[in-house]
Amino acid sequence: MDWLNNLITQTDWVRVTDVAGLVLGLLYLWLEFKASIWLWLVSVIMPIVHGYTYFARGLYADFGMEAYYVLVAIYGFIIWKFGAKQGAGDKKKEKPITHQPRRLIIPTSVVFLLLWGAIWWVLVSFTDSKVPVLDSFTTSLSMVAMWALAQKWVEQWLLWLVVDAVCCGLYIYKQIPFSASLYGFYTIMAVLGYRNWLRLMRHQSAGHRAD
């Protein structure tokens, strides 16, 4: 079994988890694009893979965020599955895609800024992070975007568009090429996903009128 021990010892596990994260990320993106509730199952598995990669590369805020992702995945599944009103004939329907209520835009922005400042302070005070501003920015905005996704708001795609573009550049800088490629692809798909969710939302509205 020496060959197996040598293989385990010599394997660059950051590269392995980086590739695994790419595969899971593509699957997650496809399910999100289709507004499939099964994206939340992938959302439980993916943080474990990404968490190892981020910690190994000193992206501590991103690492800490993976626990939040798991909690939101559980919350999101419950909201999508049981958060809709009763349909015709007392049949329970899955939560529909909607716009974010305008009254929540300012409170959401305030929460984002507070998170950004708090995470930046933690990184500067307690870690050796070399990119505290960008790491805290993408982490805090991702937290808000995940919450918006759990609410099934179409605008969550616009938040991810910003996160993905910044992460792409950040991961190139931190030499995580597969994750950088994934987030570059995410940036493009965020635009397409936004348009697709608008289309799905129109179809849902038409279906409700028909009922």
Concise overview:
The protein is mainly alpha-helical.
Give an account of the 3D structure:
With 211 residues, this protein is mainly alpha-helical. The protein has one domain (2-210). Helix content is 78%, strand content 0%. It is built from 8 helices and no strands. Helix 3 packs antiparallel against helix 4 (60-82) and helix 5 packs antiparallel against helix 6 (132-150). The model is unreliable at 1-11 (pLDDT under 50).
Characteristics of this structure?
single chain, 211 residues, mainly alpha, 8 helices, disordered N terminus
Helix percentage range: over 70%
State the end-to-end distance: 65 Å
Rg estimate, integer Å: 19 Å
Task: Quickly count the helices.
Answer: 8
- Number of domains as seen in the coordinates: 1
The percent range for strand residues is under 5%
State the total count of DSSP E strands.
0
List the helices and strands in order. Answer: HHHHHHHH
Largest sheet data: none
How confident is the prediction overall: mean pLDDT? 83
**Contiguous uncertain segments of 5+ residues:** 1-11
Secondary-structure class = mainly alpha
* Shape descriptor: globular
